[in-house]
Here is the input.
Amino acid sequence: MDVEMVFNELSGQPPAANIHDAMKRMSIFIGTTVMATGRFRVKRVLRVEKVFLSMELAPGYPLSKWRNDKQVDREERRYFNNLKTKYPVLTDFESSELKEQYIPSEYIYNGKTAHGLSIAYLLNALALSLNLDSKWDKSQWNSNQLFLQISQKQSVTVHHASHPAHVKANADWIREQLEKDDPWLKHGLPRNGEYPYQSPKRYYAEKLEDFPKESIEDRKKGFLDHKKQIWLWHKEEAHWDVQFQPYGEGRYLRVTPDGHLLNK
Here is the structure.
């Protein structure tokens, strides 16, 4: 399952006293997203409120100005501009039960509605904050610190980062989310394969002569991926035989359960 990022809008207030401090905050923020999306494979999607770009980083210095400021490190601006931002924060979930679960009045932090933190909780996403002060210096929030309206009903944990070190602290949780509902990791299937997988009833041992003579459309003997490649599991040798188009004698690859190509 993909892990996305959600911006905690509460961390944008108050703005920095000056532009220099605002740039320092954004450098840490960008470093945090780079750590998450690079080393830990978090998706380069940042869910934000519609007013995100107009948020003042310092008096008279909104985020929209920072992203085009040539005084800002070029790589930081490039990385930020390449992030895929989504708003409203529940884009892609407009007609789902998830949207019905989101009742803003239930997600209150210090008397304010915590939109970003609550969406991160509902989506199992990583909440991101500006490193404003010690208040946001946490890798997790639990029900004793957050969402006072619902803390009596259930245990709440929001995974959070305002510094690259917080991303590292959440490494096990991120890995667990990435492995959820992944057909490859559950069954040794390629990530672009069909799911659920049905195990073959018999296997092909003789490659050049017998691979495969059966009907290509019989999915029970393997499966077809989006490239129309046929994946058949070789039980005795514990690898996949992958036949590619145009189908014919000898036109196949051998692939290990973890996705590495073998020599024929």
In short: Residues 191-220 have pLDDT under 50 and may be disordered. Residues 19-39 form the longest helix (21 residues). The radius of gyration is 24 Å.
